[in-house]
Amino acid sequence: MTRTITKDTFMHPTSHDLPKQTRQAVCGLLQANLADGIDLVYQIKQAHWTLRGPNFIGLHELLDDLHEKVEDKVDLVAERIAVLGGQAEGTVDASAQASRLPKYPLDAVKIDDHVKALSKSLAAYAKNNRDAIKEADEAGDEATADLFTEIVRMADRSLWFIEAHKPVK
Length: 169
Prior knowledge:
Blueprint (H helix, E strand, L loop, with lengths): L19 H31 L5 H28 L8 H7 L12 H29 L2 H22 L6
Helix pairs in contact: 1-2, 1-3, 1-4, 2-5, 4-5
């Protein structure tokens, strides 16, 4: 489900060699993933601030690290929009309206509840970026496809780390 920027959407003038139509389409992909990333940043912080239970400190510190990693990718995505002549829509309100991630349970307290919720969101984030790799490549923007690949590698590894906190059966 790609959100593309319409012809009426403001694009900054640029000498970038990609055709305007390609840049607009790719900015739509980037914008959709920017919204997901911003939502994920605050879902991670919600867990960080509210989780309770055994082994609290290990997951608490992991979430700090994960927050930084996702925030770094959010910045790269927003800057890629700017590079292509687009206008990043990075407010919390814009992101909340556009995010494709599952809603985070605000009543989660137990570590297991946070692990379950973050696992779902990280998996969705990885999938959305994985889908965007192919779309960006098909649009003719290998650099953006590479950015999405970088995000997927980080999200997949982070999902592994979070899921390692699930109880072993």
